[in-house]
Amino acid sequence: MPFETNPCKTKGYSLLIRNLGYAGQPVGEVIRQAKELLTHQAGKHHRLEEFADQLNLSYTSFRRLFKAQTGFSPRQFAIQVGVNRAKELLARNDTPVAQIAAELGFEAADYFSKHFR
Prior knowledge:
Number of helices: 7
Structural class: mainly alpha
Distance between the termini: 20 Å
Radius of gyration: 16 Å
């Protein structure tokens, strides 16, 4: 599964999180919360910096930690969540591709389609 965590890659980030107010909370829990936020907000126009703020992290720390744990940047993860949701919607009904792209926050249907090639 491409979004699983790898605790071995984040040894240094545990200390970083402890220093930012996550004392005793495992790195995996922080990443789980981040994934949950990104998944539930798919298609909504939020800046990723807002997610970092919700997790009490600077955006730079959030991005590095997220990428070290998942192998994906938060933006890549959010795009993949949107693409997966789009696949479900496209398979279930006959809603136009442009409408699904707009509902999931893709700026243009062409950009959206590029993720399926």
